Amino acid sequence: xxxxxxxxxxxxxxxxxxxxxxxxxxxxxxxxxxxxxxxxxxxxxxxxxxxxxxxxxxxxxxxxxxxxxxxxxxxxxxxxxxxxxxxxxxx
Amino acid sequence: xxxxxxxxxxxxxxxxxxxxxxxxxxxxxxxxxxxxxxxxxxxxxxxxxxxxxxxxxxxxxxxxxxxxxxxxxxxxxxxxxxxxxxxxxxxxxxxxxxxxxxxxxxxxxxxxxxxxxxxxxxxxxxxxxxxx
Lengths: 91, 132
Fold this sequence. Notes:
- The complex is a heterodimer.
- Chain A is of the alpha+beta class.
- Chain A has one domain: Alpha-Beta Complex (Outer Surface Protein A, domain 3), CATH 3.90.930.
- Chain A contains 3 helices and 7 strands.
- In chain A, strand 3 and strand 4 (32-36) form a beta hairpin.
- Chain A is globular and about 30 Å long.
- The model of chain A has no long low-confidence stretch (mean pLDDT 89).
- Chain B has helices at residues 4-7, 84-91, 101-112, 121-128, and strands at 17-19, 29-32, 47-48, 59-60, 66-67, 82-83.
- The chains are: A alpha+beta, B alpha+beta.
- Strand 4 of chain A pairs antiparallel with strand 2 (29-32) of chain B.
């Protein structure tokens, strides 16, 4: 897992609307709308289009946010969800 | 608008925002899939009867409307339901199998006029769904 690069879906594939504590993300290529909540939007923003490794993501999140529960397994679970939804791709 | 994701959380802030990753078994995503999208996989095998079994026996006029049996210029009901794949071809300008040119056009017009609640509508709607 450590060497794989995780990258946010291309912005042109997404249509985003902020709904108070949620963010609605319409994924054009699947026609599915995802309601995402913290930490998913933060993970997407951190990964960006350039993408980063799991380790880099964990370190960047840790430096930018006060993580109350930094746990590799939990972060991996969040990342897996985003990959399953098509909002993050592995390259 | 789509670049909102990039801009949203403040980065490198002097006072770092609190963020919880949540438990392993928790979920931060709820996905909303249109009901019609679930039928997309069966587009090839779904069927559209012409006309709806509830209107069995009625004829189909050239414009696709249903008219009393024997109406001049109208066509008798199709013997069997058409497969989604065949309808897709017909909607794209092709011809339904086992039909004459005019007959296919009338049937295709009928299918275009299908409304929710009519047999075959879900199949027709699935054919209209853009595929990713």
